[in-house]
Specification:
mainly alpha; two-stranded antiparallel ribbon; about 5% strand; globular
Length: about 350
């Protein structure tokens, strides 16, 4: 499971990568070049299929957090969705394979197990006192208390000045590098959306009592639950939520897998109902992506959503035209769907790897 999970990240980031299925010596490694994206996917799918058939459905409390059969099926569904996307880059992660039916079968198996459900409260999904709840299919476990097993990821979300005013330790994004939420994104929310308050911090009081304008994610932060330092948050990281399982099913149907528009609308409206929003009808792919953007804000799924639906160039450039007033972001191109190969890897042995197209 873990090998497949990590290789799926690698193929999404870099396209072709070398395949290692056993330990090799440094000398042997120097003769192993990059395998094709299709070959990397063969390994990923084989591993996840094996994991889904051999992992248990659940664990006791002492092994909580280990991957289950349902986690393997959910990640494999993501793999099929990504492979099925339009091939915009010759070595990118999308192969136009049209495997939406395969993904749907796996998602339906998770749904029909009746082991997961949407929580009535969106905020409760991310509550420190509600971890491992019915909506979590698989998450990364963290505990606090100076044991070296706390989380760092919440620190990457907040501004350093907020941390200094509200926490007993330093950390966060410095003043010259805040990760500010885009105005366009915030404006896309209905003012009555119950996901707004649990997801964003929009201002705060500094140490002097002054109101500071701020826009950052605080979905995973609870000042009262902060640990000993910025590396010691106790909150788990949700990799796969039941809401995602449902919405991926809707995506499969919209992309041509078996199902009805009524099913798609029902899934999206179940998500909207929890957010306190009115139902919609005739949901299309763009509407689904907009709803996913709000539902999974700060959970690092947006880029993958845009890549696998073939909308990444269009959407990023439209956002850039509205938000990048300082002209700091390059125009998005198909070549940028994957990253450049790091120079230190190219330097290991001349000619072993070649740089991805679009990069020097």
């Amino acid at each position: 499971f873990l090998r497949a999970y990590f290789y799926f990240d690698l193929v999404k980031w870099f396209g072709k990568v070398p395949i290692f299925t056993k330990s090799v010596s440094p000398t042997e490694a120097l003769s192993i070049g990059r395998s094709s994206v299709s070959e990397v996917y063969d390994l990923i799918i084989s591993d996840l299929d094996f994991a889904a058939k051999n992992l248990p459905d659940s664990y006791g409390s002492t092994d909580r957090g280990r991957a289950t059969a349902f986690a393997a099926k959910g990640i494999l569904a993501r793999v099929y969705l990504m492979r099925s996307g339009p091939k915009l880059h010759p070595d990118g992660p999308c192969l136009a394979s049209n495997e939406y039916a395969k993904a749907l079968t796996l998602l339906n198996e998770i749904i029909s197990s009746n082991k997961f459900s949407l929580l009535p409260s969106y905020a409760k999904v991310f509550d420190y006192d509600s971890e491992n709840n019915a909506e979590i299919v698989w998450d990364l476990q963290y505990i606090t208390g100076g044991k070296g097993a706390g989380a760092y990821f919440p620190t990457e979300y907040y501004d350093e000045a907020w941390g200094r005013a509200n926490l007993t330790f330093a950390g966060g994004n410095p003043g010259d590098g805040p990760k500010r939420i885009s105005n366009e994104f915030l404006a896309s929310y209905d003012s009555t959306d119950l996901r707004l308050e649990p997801t964003f911090q929009l201002d705060y009081k500094d140490a002097a009592g002054n109101t500071v304008d701020a826009q950052f994610y605080d979905k995973f932060m609870n000042k009262a639950k902060a640990g000993a330092d910025r590396f010691d948050w106790a909150i788990n990281y949700p990799v796969l939520r039941y809401a995602d399982i449902l919405m991926m099913k809707a995506e499969c149907i919209l992309q041509g897998a078996s199902g009805t528009q009524t099913e798609v609308d029902g899934i999206v409206n179940s998500i909207r109902a929890r957010a306190g929003l009115k139902p919609v009808s005739s949901v299309n792919l763009n509407m689904l992506l907009d709803e996913r953007r709000k539902e999974f804000a700060g959970e690092n799924l947006r880029w993958e959503d845009l890549v696998r639906t073939g909308k990444v160039v269009e959407v990023i450039n439209a956002w850039r035209a509205k938000e990048d007033t300082g002209n700091k972001v390059q125009p998005m191109k198909n070549e940028f769907i994957i990253y450049p190969i790091p120079q230190d890897q190219l330097d290991v042995k001349k000619g072993l790897y070649t740089q991805n197209p679009g990069y020097l």
